[in-house]
Amino acid sequence: MRNFHSTFILCFLGFLLTQAQAFPSWKSCSAHSDCEATDEYCEKISSSSNECSYCAFSTEDDSVDSSVPTWCTDDTYFESSIRTSLTSSSVLTYVKQGGWQNDVSLCPSFDACTKSCRKEYKVEKTDTQITLTSTFADTTDCACDKVVFTLFQDDDDNEWKTSSTNFGTSADSVDLWQYSTDALDINIWHKDVTPVTVDCVWQYSIGTSSSPAATLTGLFGLISASVAAFVLV
Hints:
It is a single chain. The chain has 233 residues and is an alpha+beta fold. It has 2 domains: 20-79, no CATH class; 91-211, Lipocalin (Beta Barrel), CATH 2.40.128. It is 19% helix and 30% strand. It contains 3 helices and 10 strands; from the N terminus they run αβββαβββββββα. Strands 3-4-5-6-7-8-9-10 form an 8-stranded antiparallel beta barrel. It has a two-stranded antiparallel ribbon with strand order 1-2. A hairpin with a 2-residue loop joins β8 (173-180) and β9. The radius of gyration is 20 Å and the shape is globular.
């Protein structure tokens, strides 16, 4: 029975770690196999530098060996930055933030209002716009405006971008990228300065209920009850 308990708990922890994985590892690589454990591919950054990155953005052109690894096949639908599975019934729940290439200094200190507003967004989607409306109830000290991402397309760039806010930072570019069916990033960065001083990523899970996190909360309750029952046995 003890072995069953251990296996059960380890599997559950494995599930949580899988759900928590948010950003590319950005670790150095020389072959795709170096990135397989994290479900990534080896991207050629320069003639002397390669990094593990999202499978969703894998292409033969930027691949270290001009190929896409087999484990990336299911994710390549999101290769184009304009592709998204969001609908007007989607709900985005904030997971965590990180600086580009794990540099925490690239995420500024957001104020309390921004942190409250970003926790959960309802989605309105058309062919050319994605509108995020915070579920946070406005107060006298904090009001959440809608964030509107517009489809921007030209010969060189295709992105969902917003000019409606920079979330109180010096960033001059805020865009939305979906890289899997259940997660996306909002990227906040200052691209017109060298070196870049703001390059922050917010990760969101994608759900369809009013509170996607309730599923995980309910799972915690089920696990707790199950563990208690096994202990009693």
